[in-house]
What we know:
heterodimer; A: 540 residues; alpha+beta; D-Maltodextrin-Binding Protein, domain 2; Dipeptide-binding Protein, domain 3; four-stranded antiparallel sheet; 31% helix; B: 270 residues; mainly alpha; MetI-like fold
Amino acid sequence: MAKSTALQSGARARLRTLSVLVAAVALALTACTGAGQQAPAPSGAPTAGATSAAPAPAPEETRTLVIGATAEPQTLDPTATDAAAGPQALLYNVYETLVRLDAAGDLKPLLAQAWDVTPDRLTYTFRLNPAAQFSDGTPVDAEAVAKNIERIQTGTTAPKLKNQMEVVVGTEVVDATTLDVTLSRPSVTWLFDMAGAAGIVMNPEGFDAAGSETAGSGPLTLDRWTPGDSIALKRNDAYWGTPARFDEVTFRYFKDPNAMNASMLSGQLDIISNLQAPETIDQFSDEGRFTIIEGSTEGEVTMAINNGAAPEGVPAGTGNPALQDVRVRKAITMAIDRRALLDTVWHGKGTLIGSMSVPTDPYYEDLADLHPYDPEEAKRLLAEAGHENLTLRLRPPTLPYATKAAQFIASQLGAVGITVQVEELQFPRQWIDTAMTNADYDLTIVSHVEPRDVATYANPAYYWRYDNPAVQEAVRKAGEGTIEEYTTEMRNAARIIAEDAASVWLFALPNLVVTKEGVTGVAENANSSLSFDVTTIAKA
Amino acid sequence: MKRAELWVGLALVTAVVAMALVSFVWTPFDATAVGSGPRLQSPGLPHVLGTDHMGIDIFSRILVGARSALYVGIIAVGIAALVGVPLGILAAWLPRWGAEAMMRATDVAYAFPALLLAILLAAVFGASTETAMVAIGIATIPAFIRVTRAGALSVLASDYVLAARAAGTPAPAIAVRHVLPNVAHLIGVQASVSFAMAILAEAALSYLGLGTPPTVPSWGRMLGDAQTYLFGHPTQALWPGLAIAAAVLGFNLVGDGLRDFLDPKLREVA
Lengths: 540, 270
């Protein structure tokens, strides 16, 4: 009995503690957001943040720029993964390419002063800037560029980049500053890709350690990488071109949008590279302190429909067969009020689109009204197809915009008689396994930020499981044609998939940048290089 | 004083149960249809607690959310009690070494956090209300084993059980006829406290997006959704927070009060 009393008094003490906890629960849970966000940003951690906020000017004032960003690179080698985070911080800032994309999306010289193409469009001749040198002083010569192209093709680099470089059949070092690159077929996209991560020219000495150290030729070099917190870059004093305007540039990473906003409001950040919670934008409405830049990105928030193709060599997928009927897919598209969805999910910021193409694409065509919101027509189409009692699994990743959109769409599809079971998949691992790799879904929602990704609809093995020879033909012709043919064919492909309602394109993601008063030169649009280019930025 | 605690607890629990029951027959607005009102309204009329980011009436969602909370609580505590109580009685019956082994295993299981188990299960079987309930239920089993064993040990040592044994009554009959009724009050208290914990765990899981799916109203999910609006529309987070606090406090007070009420010795001391 003594034993049981002791146990009870122990339980009693625990209950007391619990009662105290409970009394604080409302506060604690609501404050979770506030307190939780402070956690990843320990007050004393980033010295760069502290210096930028410090009012007293040091004798030798260091010029700093602190940028808040969301996704953190898993490696310092931007060619190792498809992730956008690597190029965002390092491309053009630490690593340079032969040619670069400017804010308007046009190609400009960088390491190459000039380039020529033969009339058959198969051989490019690049003339390198003789002044160009890596941060350790070795010159950037044709030999180094050739080694980098070979590294992308044969090294342990991202499949996407290998794919972009696949068209190259040979390089020839003519002299130290002249390089010939031969392609197997004409390509409109290759030179654009060379302005992105695929075209990075790394010091060949640094190939082996590229994951943890940088070896570039850009105006900045790596100072300190603190995984989970920040990447600090410092000025490359030996830079061959226009020197950097800043002594220190820090990318600080925030998993939580509120934490990033709080840092910005308290003056620790100079720039929010892309606001992830647009509903919080009103916090920055004080025009004396902040500037809000509303540009565009290459991202399309897409509700994927499992079209049911099962090419050989990939898992068969489990899409509902009803989705192979174009009438059902059209009905789904027409049952969703995308304007209201954009208001709900992304605070009305962004553009309505009707295909896998954004307004900055050269081949863009406004198809947003191709299948307008019309629940009655949707019901009619479902009845015509004989699917009045359809049940679909909507499996969004555990990302705020996706689950919000899922809730919205489930309600709207319910209104036309489609029962939607929402099952969240943990992002990224579970979502990639289940939805992307195994096509084990009927509907799912994710944003696709890769540039010109209409081409993914030409691949039946991609998780859309969309198999349409007309699209495959158009994308193939586009890749091999002239720039005019490219535009025509890509527009054609975008129109076919739209008419086929292969997916539901919910909206194009805006590029919402917030800058502190006095910061200028931030590009309005995020372009396909994925770089957050600090070389154009100045701070008063 | 103790009695007052029990009454406050009962009142809160009754309120939560009433909300859940009422939601089956009546809610002021549809709790799932998006766009039934303007978005992010402040409390007022006709939306007494305002509307959320989807334009759904918050009061209606709070009412329906009570269902999720109770549902998870009932199933999780049910699983824990159904498994834990028989095991607890068994542990009291086993010879010393067997009981020791079992209790040490229970201690290990007790140390394993319920939330972590729920996250693991959600990763393997997918996030759903069912996964959350099972995970919370499993994690609560050790508490029931401990409490039941402690009570059963004293019952098994009593004269009437010795008499029953001497008369040749089979062990299962003793367990059901003598042990169970005499540990029922302990189990009741434990159930009440575990219920509160289950509600809190469900809220936490839904807040993380690992519990109830987004289409089903749930207090934890409402808190999670309210997070991004905290600066502009703080009341969004207030209502679900208060609802969770009231439910958890209610069940804890009931557990606390019940124990004092049912245990004559503690009553005398107080």
